[in-house]
Amino acid sequence: MTNLEKYTKAFVDAFDVPPSELPTLAYQAIPSWDSVGHMGLMAVLEEAFGITLEIDDVIDFSSFAKGQELLKKYSVEL
C-alpha cells in the first residue's frame, strides 16, 4: 500500500466518507470530524506512518490537503 493509499484509508475509516469527498474535506465540515474524531485521526496517522506529530501540527491539521503538506515535514511523501 502506498503512503497516499494509507493516508486516504485513514480518513475513509475514521470518518466513513467516500474517497471522492476527501480533496475538499475540512475540519468540522462533517459531524464525525469533531475534536474527538480529530484526535482519533491523528492517532491513526501516527501509527500508519510511524511518526509523532507535534502539537502545533495537530492543531494546524485543518483539512485533507493541509495534512498532506504537514506530513512532508515528517518525511512522509504522498
Set out the fold topology.
Layout: H1 3-15, H2 35-49, H3 55-60, H4 64-72
Question: What would your notes on this structure say?
Answer:
It is a single chain. The chain is mainly α and 78 residues long. It has four helices and no strands. The protein has one domain: Non-ribosomal Peptide Synthetase Peptidyl Carrier Protein, Chain A, CATH 1.10.1200. Helix 1 packs antiparallel against helix 2. The longest helix is centred in the middle third of the chain and has 15 residues. The chain is globular, with a radius of gyration of 11 Å. It starts with a helix and ends in a 6-residue tail after the last helix.
How many domains is the backbone divided into?
1
Largest sheet: none
Q: Looking at this structure, what is the CATH superfamily?
A: ACP-like
**Total beta-strand segments:** 0
Indicate the structural class.
mainly alpha
Compute the average pLDDT.
97
| Shape designation | globular
Low-confidence regions:
none
Q: Strand percentage, roughly?
A: under 5%
* H/I helix tally: 4
Q: Please state the CA-atom Rg, rounded to the nearest Å.
A: 11 Å
End-to-end Cα distance: 11 Å
**Helix proportion of residues, in percent?**
55-70%
The CATH level-2 architecture is identified as: Orthogonal Bundle
SSE pattern, N- to C-terminal? HHHH
Q: Which CATH class?
A: Mainly Alpha
The CATH topology comes to: Non-ribosomal Peptide Synthetase Peptidyl Carrier Protein, Chain A
Gist?
With 78 residues, the chain is mainly α. It has four helices and no strands.
How would you describe this structure in keywords?
78 residues; mainly alpha; Non-ribosomal Peptide Synthetase Peptidyl Carrier Protein, Chain A; 4 helices; globular
